[in-house]
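Protein modeling request. Please complete all fields; requests missing the sequence field cannot be processed.
Requester role: graduate student
Desired output: 3D structure, C-alpha cell encoding
Chains: 1
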Amino acid sequence: MQTIRKKSKNTVKTLLILIILAAAALPGGAEEGQNRAAAVPARPDASSKEPSAEPVTVSAVKLHIPKEKTKPSAVRRWLEVSEGRRYENDKALQDAVEQDVQELKNLKVFLSVESRITPDPQNSSGRIVHYEITDGNTFVPIVMPLYNSNVGGIQILYVQIWDNMFGSLIDWFSLSTLFLRKNDAGKIETGPWVFFPRVSNIKLGSLNLSAEFKQERVESQRYSGTSLVSSYRYDGTALAVGSEFRFGELRNLRYSVKPGVIFRYGYTDFLGSGGFSEIPFETYIAQSFYYDSVDVFHNSRKGCRAGVKNTLRLISRDGKWVTATDIRAEFAPYFAFGKEGRISYYPRVMILGVIGDRYEGLGKPLRGIPDATMDGNFAFYLNQTVGFGIWRWRGVWDLQIHPFFDLGLTTGGTRAFTGIQDIRRSTGADILLFIEKVPNLAFRFSWGFDMDSRVPWKEKKKKTEFIVRYSFSY
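Delivered output (474 residues):
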C-alpha cells in the first residue's frame, strides 16, 4: 500500500509539471500567460476576436504624446470619442476611434497616430481608449525663388508655415512674395507682390474658425485670341473671417461661411486704352455646402469631395453700386491603389456660373493654359490626373510624377463664343516632392502645354505654362 501511495504522489507531481510546462509553451511564456490572464477578464472585450455585442461606455481617454509638443487639450478638441460616451457595442466604438485617428492624420502635423482599446478592470462594460501620437516638425520657414510664366518672371518667396502653432493645433501661415523680371529695355523691374498672413483651424466645438489679411499689388491682363486688349495694375487690401460647421456625427457634411471686404486703389492702365473697370470697393459673403470624405493615405489621398459654393458680392464699379453672384459646383473623387497608394487617379469636374459680372483669368484651373486667355460668365472644367510614385527614400523624401490632361470651356463676357478660344485643352505633368520629416509640406513643379494655342512654335513660351510652388493640395 505504501508503494502504491508513493506512485500516486509521483503521478500527481508529474501531471503538475506537465501542466506548468504546457503553460510555459504558450506564446510569451508562462509569465506573459499569467499577465494576460490577469489583464483579460473572462468576458468578450474590445481586443478579443469576439467583441461584445452589448453597449459599452468609454471610461477614459488616454493620450500618449512623447515630450508633449502638442498639448493634450488641443488633441481632445478634435476627438469625437470622450469620457462617458456610450456606444452600441465594441464595433461601434472601434469605428469611432478609427475615424478619430484618420481625422488626426488628415491634419498633416503628426508623423504617426495609432490607437488601442483596453477593458476597464473596474467596469465590465467600460473601455479605455488610448491614442499614441508622434509629433512632426511643422514650423517651416522658406526662402526660395519660384517661377510663374503667367507673370513672366522669378518670384522671390518668403513663407512661414507653422501648423500646430505652440502645440495648439491652430495653423499659422504667412506669405510674402515679390516678382522680379526684365522689362522691354532689358532692365530688372519689380512686378506683383503679396503679403498674406492667415490663422486657421481654430477649433471651437463643431465650429472651425479662420481669419486672414492680404495686402497686394496685382497685374491683370486680358487677351482676345493672341491680341492683348487690356493690361493694368492696382493695389489691394483685403480682410476676411471664416467659419466651418460640421453636422455632428455626419462629420463629412460641412457648411462654411466667409464674409470679407476688398479695397482696390492706385489703378494704372499700361495700354492707355481702357478695356477694364475700376472696382475701388467690394464686400462679399461666400457660403459653401459640401461633402468631404477625402483622407490622407500615405502621400496620396482617398475619398471624395463634392459641393456647391455661392458668393454674393456688392461692388462699387465706375462710380456705381452693382450686385453680382456666382455659383460653383465641384465633384472630385480620389483613388489610390496599392498598399501605400503608389498609383493614384483623381479627376475633377467644376462648373462656374456668374450673374451680373464677367470674370477674367478663367484659365487658372487649367494647367498649361495662360490664365489671362480665358474670361466670361460661364465655365466648365475637367481635370484628369494620374499619379505615380517614382522614388521613395523612407524617412527622407517621396518623389512622384503626375501626368495630366485638362479640358475647359468658357462663354459669355464681351465677345461672341469662338471654339478656338473658348474650348481649351492642355496636357503636361506635375512633379511632387514630399519631405517625410515635415508632414505638412510638399514642393510642386508644374509644366503644361496649351494644345489649342495658335501661337507659332517659335514663340513656345506663350504656348506653355510653367509654375514652381509649394503645397500639399493636388
